[in-house]
Amino acid sequence: MSAFAKSIREANEALGRKMCASFISNGYKTARYAATAEEAASMALELIPDRCSVGVPGTVTVREIGLMEKLAEKNCTVYHHWDPTLTPETRGARLEAENKADWFVTSSNAMTFDGRMVNIDGSGNRVAGMSWSLGKILYIVSVNKAERDLDSAIARARNSATPPNVLRLNLATPCSKTGQCVDCNSPERICRVLTIIERAPLGRESHVILVGETLGY
Ligand code: SF4
Asked: How far apart are CA 120 and CA 111, in angstroms?
C-alpha cells in the first residue's frame, strides 16, 4: 500500500470509528467499522442468521461487496427488485417482500458526522424500508459518503449520488448531461422523496457497518 493510500485509510478509520459512536448514541444497536469491503461483508454475515429472508432495495454498495451471493450461500432468501425476470405485474409484490423480510439491508446516499442518514428516492420504496420495514435494518455505508452537516449531506445525495444513478437507469434528466443537480422539473426526475433518519426508528433493531473503502454512489 502506498503512503497516500495508507494515510487515506487511517483518516477514514478515525472518522468511521468516531461516527460509530454517534450512531450508537442515536439508538443503533451496533455500529462497527470495516476497513475493507470484504470485512464489511463478513460483519454483515455475522449479524444475519442462516436461512432467514433478506430484502435488498436499490443499492449498489450491497451488491458491490458480494453480499447477495454470500447470503444465498447461507440459504437466505434474498428479495430484490433489480431482478431482470420481474414483470410490471410481479414487481409490486417483490417490493413488498423486500420490506417485509427478516432483514432489510441497504446503504445510504449520505450521512452526517453526527449519525443521521440522508436519502433521496424516486418511488420511495427504499426510504420507506429504512423507516418502516418490518424486520431488522442494516446499513452498509462507505465513509466517503459522510458530510459535516445536513445541508452538505443533501447536496451530496443530489450532486454525487443521483447523476450516476440516473446514468445507470438511462434517464434523460439534466444531471445526466451536467453531472450535477439543477433541481430539474423533468418527468424523469428521480429526486422525489427526501428523508432524514435522525435516530434509529422505534420498535426494531437497526445496525450500521461503516466501510473505509469507497463503495456505491
Ligand atoms: S433534481 Fe433533477 S437534476 Fe437534480 S439530481 Fe435530481 S434528477 Fe438530477
From this structure: 12
Q: Is 3-148+195-211 in CATH node 3.40.50?
A: yes
58 CA distance to ligand 1 middle (Å): 17
pLDDT tens column, 61-96:
999 999 999 999 999 999 999 999 999 999 999 999
Phi-psi region of 203 (alpha: psi -120 to 50; beta: other; left: phi over 0): left
Q: Which atom of ligand 1 is nearest to the CA of 120?
A: 6
In this predicted model, what pLDDT tens digit does every residue of 34-71 receive, in sequence order? 999 999 999 999 999 999 999 999 999 999 999 999 99
Cell numbers describing residue 147: 458530510
C-alpha 130 to ligand 1 mean position (Å): 22
Please report, in angstroms and rounded to a whole number, the separation of the first and last CA atoms in the chain. Answer: 24
Residues with CB under 6 Å of ligand 1 are 158, 162, 166, 173-175, 181-184, 186, 189-191
- Report the share of the chain in percent with pLDDT over 90: 96
Grid coordinates belonging to 208: 450500521
Which pLDDT belongs to residue 118?
98
> Grid coordinates 453480499 are at which residue?
67
Task: Give me the residue label for grid cell 455475522.
Answer: 46
> Domain residue spans in the chain?
3-148+195-211
What pTM did the predictor assign? 0.96
Cα 142 to ligand 1 centre (Å):
22
Q: Could you tell me which of 120, 121, 124, 123 has the C-alpha nearest to residue 132? A: 124
